[in-house]
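A quick aside before the break. I want you to see a complete sequence-to-structure record at least once, exactly as it would be stored in a machine-readable document. Don't worry about memorizing anything.
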Amino acid sequence: MSVLLAAEDLALAYGEVSVCRDIAFDIQPGEIVTLLGANGAGKSTTLRAVAGVLIPRAGAILLRGQDITRLPSHARADLGIALVPEGRHVFPYLTVRENLELGAFKHRRDHAKVRGLMDKMLAMFPRLAERAGQNAGTLSGGEQQMLALGRAMMSEPALLCLDEPSLGLAPRVAQDIFRTIRTINQEGTSVLLVEQNARYALDTASRGYVLQTGRIIASGPCASLREDMRVREAYLGRAAARVPQE
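That is the input. The structure line, written in tokens, reads:
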């Protein structure tokens, strides 16, 4: 199976402050891969580098074998990478429908396609359909997360990058969001997931990489990572690690 995305020996920094070093991982078509680690480990920074928000200081990012390391985020979106940022960042004074339309910018000349994608997203998120004419700023946190997901999927990405999708959500709402993420993946979209709730991440992904102070210290199938003492003690805590999968 060909690799969808590969990160090779990335060095990431904000100005003169080094954040990540020697980051290397890959994502196969159809996979959900998670980046695990404590706050400040470099997970979100790595995700931003994949999406083109942050250009690496060194190393390479390949999409289907094409070097996209220096490409800006809008060019990566055209190639099939979509980012749902931490905090959702919907446009509060635009309606739900207008937010979704912005996600389909690369299809803007194909009006029939945009209509079809809009219908698909409103069917996937019935609450958004009920609120299609409301300003996004009037939605609940869970509804805004649905909108951010739907907006990203309007570009028909090959790779969906998710940064803390459960942040600030009630457990039941977060569970609904993760069910939707699994559905999106089952329909063919690969997912790179950053999620502070390690249980959600390990229950959702097939493989994971564990970051600690900007370096990858462990990787493998999520079932194996769940039993790794470094993960159990540092990122899950012993009690959380013993919680069985649903």
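Two observations worth writing down. The mean pLDDT is 91. The longest strand covers residues 17-27. We'll return to this after the break.
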